Amino acid sequence: MPEKSITIALAGNPNSGKSTIFNNLTGTRQKVGNWPGVTVEKKEGHLKTNVYDLSVVDLPGTYSLTAYSIEEIVARNFILDEKPDVVVDIIDASNLERNLYLATQLRELDTKVIFVLNMADLARERGVKIDADKLSELLDVPVVFTVGNRNKGTRDLLETIMSVAEAEIDLPRTRRVYYGKDIEKAVGELSEFIKEKTTAELPYHTRWVAIKLLENDGIVKERVLQSANPKGEAILQEAELKRQRLRDFFDEEPEIVMTDHRYGFIAGIVKEVVKTVSKQRVDVSRQIDQVLTNRLLGLPIFVFFIWAMFQLTFSLGAYPMDWIDAGVGWLGQAVGQILPEGLFRDLIVDGMIAGMGSVAIFLPNILILFFCIALFEDSGYMARAAFLMDKVMHLIGLHGKSFIPMLMGFGCNAPAIMATRTLESEKDRILTILINPLMSCAARLPVYILLAGAFFGARAGNVIFSIYALGIVLAISIGRLFRSTLLRGKVAPFVMELPPYRVPMLKGLLIHMWDRSKIFLRKIGGVILIGSVVVWFLSAFPREVQFSRDYEAEIAGISDHYRPLISAAHGDLRERLLGKKDETISGLETLQAREKIERSYIGRLGRVLTPVFAPIGMDWRGSVAVLTGFVAKEIVVSTMGVLYTVGADEDEKSEALKVALRKSNMTPLSAYAMMTFVLIYVPCLATVAVIRRETNSWKWAAFSITYSTTLAWLVAFMIYQGGKAIGLG
Amino acid sequence: MNLSELKEGQTATVARVGGDGHFRRRLLEMGFLRGTEVYVEKYAPLRDPIELILKGYHLSLRVDEAANIDVEEVRSGE
User: Fold this and answer.
1) Residue with more model confidence, A142 or A366
2) What ipTM, to 2 d.p.?
3) Cβ of residue A270 closer than 8 Å to a chain B Cβ
4) Smallest Cβ distance to A259: which of B29, B41, B49?
5) pLDDT by residue (tens digit) across A292-346?
6) How far is CA A392 from CA A400, A430, B41, B46, in A?
7) Domains observed in chain B
8) Is the Cβ of B16 closer than 8 Å to some Cβ of chain A?
9) Looking at chain A, which residue has its C-alpha nearest residue B62?
């Protein structure tokens, strides 16, 4: 039985192999969530030994611990405020110098640190040998070797963690970064000043606070104001005075001089611990990039990879989709047979099962898409994709990394929005999320196929293409608009590492894929379930409808009328009579269904909204169809099937529905206006739910709904009224 | 001369890093210190961004960002 629980924080640079070490330590016992208040992913895992109950927290990968980026703040605050028992810093051994920059900052915090030299085998292959004992001695920190992707050194690491957690080691006060005479003097004086002035306990040790104040660290300044009140003001003034003096002396910002000193300190260590035994051998990663980011081949290969990803997603995904579809249908029928007829059965079968089923069907697509994304990420190709596409995305004021989520939007917006997690800047992420639904997802295609097929004949293909193009143009314009108003601010700098290519580990890929798909599955059980029930309620109530005709009696009458005729007839005639009877009855049933939905709440809502939709060329049937499309866009087609009295089983290829549409008062112009409306208006329920989750705010979800629906109306209005004005339609 | 004026296959030494506070500090933290050698590995197919090698690792920067870095001792090869 474990007796003690200890918390371990994993820190390290991006691409240092941190998540592999995390997976090795915790296996699949992981929990993915968000850090409170922000949309940075938090991963936590557990493992038990016979003495300890270890909880491992994976901090965001960072290069430094300044207060500039949200990831760095999150990582730093966790170490300072939650006080984990041990901080493990994963260091990419083949990139020691830059990795030690974070390491020296971690050592300055008041905490127990272990250094893990990861991928030392790779470093050795490159002719770099690291003297771990020397490093450990120079920095006064335990050092462990691991090879993450071969699960080597994990046991060693665990043992070191436990012994360090147990030991009463004095925190290293010596062998720390020496910032030079002048800065050290300022640090010393400021520390004294803080100690004299503060009666209240500062949450962190004084030297660190003094260093951070000299670096003009916004968050530390805030904390000092809060906890050292009323003397905080005086401390900040003193710090500013010292900063001013240092700035005059160095003719440079103090934090820049301090960065210089840290690297100077690191250079000294690297000189002592690294032995370059041989000249670098062939650099495989660099050779791969000669092809993959080649001036001529780079883009075509990228396009091919993306094409392959979509092929895999939609062709391979089609099989399990059919199974799920059949499974949901079977489940609906089975439950329908078990439960007695009535309201409860309708709620379960038509509301819950059908509603969740219409979203669950996308699960195979989502699994495959996320597998591909994990493959791009873990192999290192994602950074190359951003490198290739940055110029294009920069047009919208976005980072190259936004390209992949935008592209995934053409498949399904829900996973696409989840994929924005790879973006580092929060503003970039929100902007990408907001314009993502303008990438026309696969569920909207049936609507276009139906309307374009009905009204544009042979030109349908071009018309549909123009809708997709309109979405892209709008995404660019809206993106630029939001970037210059709502989400103003500098474009995130493109200071991006191109890590060496690595062979991804299947286990890691599967964990990545599953973590994200799980979020989607949870949605199906939550918001989507509720939304489906609401839409079902609106279309199924009121239960008792006063029909204009007595359908039941008419149907019974027809059966009575045909019964003697059919029993008297033989062969061909009998078949024909049977067919005629069924046709007449189903015609009546469709009329009844139409009248039912017409008189349901959603039908009434559609009628009430007629004045709103009339200026964009849609009658009440169109209005009701787009209202039901909120659950899932493809439902627009089946609703239209019902409302145009050809039956709910019609799909986008139905000739009957096309004929019915042409016979209605719709024109090619109003059909086009409706297509643009369907392209732009409110994202489907699943997407709204994902937006809520990924932005961590109902505000952004509500904004997304409002702006998209308003924009949809405006664009459709301009197209419809403009078209009429120039004599189209 | 600044870094964005270098051609593929050239190496130079960092003389000074400009730009605004946050961005400048980030560059320094990534290792663009005075005296550091930077090699221009390649330009992206659309001529932006640039792939650089410094301190033994590969890093990319946009052209207008690289223009903030003054360099000296430009020479061919690594």
Assistant:
1) A142
2) 0.95
3) no
4) B29
5) 999 999 999 998 998 888 788 778 888 888 898 888 889 988 988 888 888 888 8
6) 8, 19, 21, 9
7) 3-76 (2.30.30.90)
8) no
9) A494
